[in-house]
Design brief:
Distance between the termini: 62 Å
Order of helices and strands: HHHEEHEHEEEHEEEEHEHEEEH
Number of strands: 14
Radius of gyration: 24 Å
Length: about 300
């Protein structure tokens, strides 16, 4: 009996089948949204559990062993049965309900809470959303967190990371400040009053790209009298005529449209940052999480586009 037993991971089974269907580890990693190394590790674990080699690997191709050919149909059957189990459970549960906890950075979190949370509530009134704002990324190993939105990159290869979109950082200042301190070229920033995003230093290198040439960054050394670890506070300082702010575009778009802030060097922009929806493998099979994940994938990309110039 299997109770005496060795454990079996559905993640390993799904990865094995996906590698076979997609024709290799790289394609499977892209399909599943996880790192190539995680696919290789999970495959090795499955072979170790079964005590049999499933795939022949070479630099050019990957093929099933004889044992792999025999085992593949049974693995596909197990996965299909597992999917039916989840579907049956969802049908019995009916409308998704419960609490979903999300970890997100403070500044992007404000955008998410004010626009995305109401969308979830309209679609699924029995789901409650809780968010924690923190610049330190949650690693989702804490079971109290269900999903996260991360900016830049995802370092944990065991998590699913779905790219929702991206945003760029831009230079802004108040019209009053620019009337007295005009900025005509990037080098002018070296002598301007700039507001730095940091809690440890007032010096930074701002990398700008000419919109027509995104391959060659222009590094600008910045020495400031003010450093704040909050983009919201930096924008408030810019509104108060305190200098040049280098902030995410989505945070300044409302003030730009209202005319209280202006783009500085509008033909230049900063490095684009990717936005990822991150969750544990298999979370999208849980009814309440699947519902929120689907809304996030559909709604947040449009949210990012609507908050850009």
């Amino acid at each position: 009996m299997i109770l005496n037993l060795r454990t079996m991971s559905f993640q390993e089974l799904v990865i094995f089948v996906t590698v076979v269907r997609e024709g290799g580890i790289i394609a499977a990693a892209d399909k599943l949204g996880i790192a190539k190394s995680a696919v290789s590790t999970q495959l090795a674990r499955l072979e170790d559990r079964l005590k049999v080699k499933l795939l022949e690997r070479s630099s050019r191709r990957m093929s099933l062993t004889v044992a792999g050919e025999h085992i593949l149909p049974r693995v596909e059957s197990l996965i299909a049965e597992g999917e039916r189990l989840f579907e049956q459970a969802e049908q019995e549960i009916g409308e998704p309900a419960g609490t979903v906890k999300m970890a997100v950075t403070p500044d992007f979190g404000s955008l998410v809470v004010t626009h995305f949370f109401p969308e979830v509530n309209r679609s699924y009134p029995k789901i409650s959303m809780i968010s924690k704002f923190d610049y330190q990324f949650e690693d989702l190993q804490d079971p109290s967190f269900d999903i996260a939105i991360r900016i830049g990159k995802v370092n944990d290869e065991n998590l699913v990371a779905h790219q929702l979109g991206e945003f760029k950082r831009i230079l802004v200042a108040s019209p009053e400040y620019l009337a007295v301190h005009p900025i005509k070229q990037p080098s002018d920033l070296e002598h301007a009053e700039c507001i730095v995003f940091s809690s440890t230093t007032t010096e930074r290198i701002w990398k700008l790209f000419l919109a027509s040439n995104m391959e060659q960054p222009i590094p600008i050394p910045i020495k400031s009298n003010m450093a704040v670890l909050s983009f919201s506070a930096i924008i408030e300082l810019a509104l108060a005529n305190q200098g040049i702010a280098y902030v995410p575009e989505f945070m300044a778009i409302r003030q730009i449209r209202a005319g209280t802030l202006q783009r500085v060097l509008p033909s230049y922009q900063g490095i684009s940052s990717k936005v990822f929806l991150v969750y544990r493998f298999g979370s999208d099979k849980i009814h309440r999480l699947k519902s929120v994940i689907e809304i996030a994938k559909a709604h947040i990309p449009n949210l990012l586009k609507s908050h850009s110039c």
